[in-house]
What does this fold into?
Amino acid sequence: PQTVWIVLRDYLKAQPTLRCEHPEAAARIFMGSLISHVLTQKLLYGEAIAPMDDAVLIDALVALMIGPEA
It folds into this structure.
């Protein structure tokens, strides 16, 4: 995950239109959300208890990061 955090952090730093004040924190929040989703859905039987479509979660995360208008 650290390599992905670094790549995502650097991407967020390089995008002035995103106005991300804390790219390191934002990258960790993004990755943590994805990791949590996979753990709860696949390992903790979340698919049976509280299913969440992968695409829906990813779309929501991206909208939070870059805004719905992007």
Summary: DSSP finds four helices and no strands in the chain. The mean pLDDT is 90. The radius of gyration is 13 Å. The helical segments are 2-14, 23-43, 46-49, 54-66.
